[in-house]
Design a protein that fits this description.
Helix content: 10-25%
CATH architecture of the largest domain: Alpha-Beta Complex
Strand order of the largest sheet: 13-19-18-17-16-15-14
Distance between the termini: 16 Å
Mean pLDDT: 95
Shape: globular
Strand content: 25-35%
Number of strands: 19
Number of domains: 2
Largest sheet: 7 strands, antiparallel
Length: 364
């Protein structure tokens, strides 16, 4: 054995410095299926946000890899996550988001579950005398919160969430992320591989070429990169002409007041902490060359809410510019003679870190 990782005839071994995974890694259906099982099903995944789960009975349905899950606020105040599948014959219990009242009720045969997961209602119960119905509650999943976000994990062997989240937990704590309210959100359907969009969020090389507002807002020169086992982040300074637009915030240091933290939490979350707000991009894989891009922004309300319209316009404009660029990347990856790509040593350094994480996860 030479240690080479091969899927669909592609060498997916960790690329050497400055080199990228082969183009087929971003188009292959076989690679995509392997990623769903070996990466997404084994990772801590963002599944919901706390502002959606305030009242007893509030729920959010989500997917981890190919597995449907549901997060629900119990009538005891606890937040819980379960496989979104009735224990009878597997029907999903919840779709989208909403409030289930006191029970999650199967729409197929009306089996009902309390918000703590217990099976509490079975029509024609006598028909199931051969079953231990008391042991047929919903299957729980691991759950954790960070700032305004909720994360779920299917893999009992995955590291504790605190380890997975790394420095992001401290950064969101300093930003008072758990107190933030949802300001606005966008959802886009984009015809690209999930890794293509993640990598776009990891580099500043394209910023002065593709972006107007973002390039005016932050400076890529002097940026600092930080690398962790399950992610990375960059500190970039805000240009002086924009500092005056943000009111002084007593909970931030002088350095934090003038810095944007562009992060990545493996595999598919791009969290961005600015002085006045917190935003994220979640790249949901829908197919080998299709994603759902969920973009949400939060703030502490009050006088900071006055900045929402500007931020809303800037986020959508930046996303639309990125979507235009990455869509062309995805098309180009089909060029029959396209050689393995390269990345720059600093401005795109985090791409190399990400692709090594992908390779390591696929090999596990």
């Amino acid at each position: 054995m030479d240690g080479t990782l091969t899927i669909d005839g592609l060498d997916l071994s960790a690329p050497p410095p400055g080199r990228c995974l082969p183009a087929g890694a971003f188009t292959s259906a076989a690679v995509f299926e392997a990623e769903l099982g070996r990466i997404f099903a084994r990772s801590w995944m963002h599944v919901a946000d706390l502002p959606e789960l305030c009242a007893a009975g509030d729920f959010v349905a989500a997917t981890i890899g190919t597995t449907p899950v549901v997060v629900v606020r119990g009538h005891d105040g606890e937040l819980r996550g379960f496989l979104n599948a009735c224990r009878h014959r597997g029907t999903t219990l919840a779709e989208g988001r909403g409030n289930c009242g006191r029970q999650l009720r199967c729409p197929y045969h009306a089996w009902s579950y309390a918000t703590d997961g217990r099976l509490v209602g079975v029509p024609e119960r006598q028909e199931f005398a051969h079953c231990d119905l008391g042991a047929m509650g919903l299957v729980p999943i691991r759950l954790a919160t960070l700032g305004p976000m909720v994360f779920g994990c299917l893999d009992a062997a995955a590291p504790a969430f605190k380890e997975w989240a790394g420095e992001l937990a401290e950064a969101l704590g300093r930003a008072r992320g758990a107190e933030m309210e949802l300001a606005f959100d966008y959802v886009y359907d984009v015809p690209v591989n999930w890794k293509v969009y993640v990598e776009n969020g990891l580099e500043g090389y394209h910023v002065p070429i593709v972006h107007d507002f973002l390039n005016d807002f932050v400076a890529t020169d002097g940026a600092r990169h930080f690398f962790e086992p399950h992610g990375s982040y960059t500190h970039a300074r805000i240009r002086p002409e924009f500092l005056a637009t943000v009111p002084p915030l007593a909970h931030l240091s002088a350095e934090e007041q003038g810095t944007v933290r562009f992060g990545h939490l493996f595999p598919n979350l791009i969290p961005v902490i600015a002085p006045a707000d917190f935003s994220y991009l979640r790249i949901d894989p829908l197919g080998p060359e299709r994603i759902r891009l969920v973009a949400r922004s939060f703030d502490l309300g009050g006088e900071l809410a006055a900045l929402r319209e500007l931020r809303r316009e800037a986020l959508d404009r930046t996303n639309q510019q990125d979507i235009g660029a990455v869509t062309r990347v995805q098309r180009g990856l089909h060029a029959s003679r396209h050689a393995t790509g390269v990345h720059s040593s600093f401005l795109e350094e985090r791409i190399g870190h990400f692709e090594r994480m992908v390779s390591r996860a696929l090999a596990a």
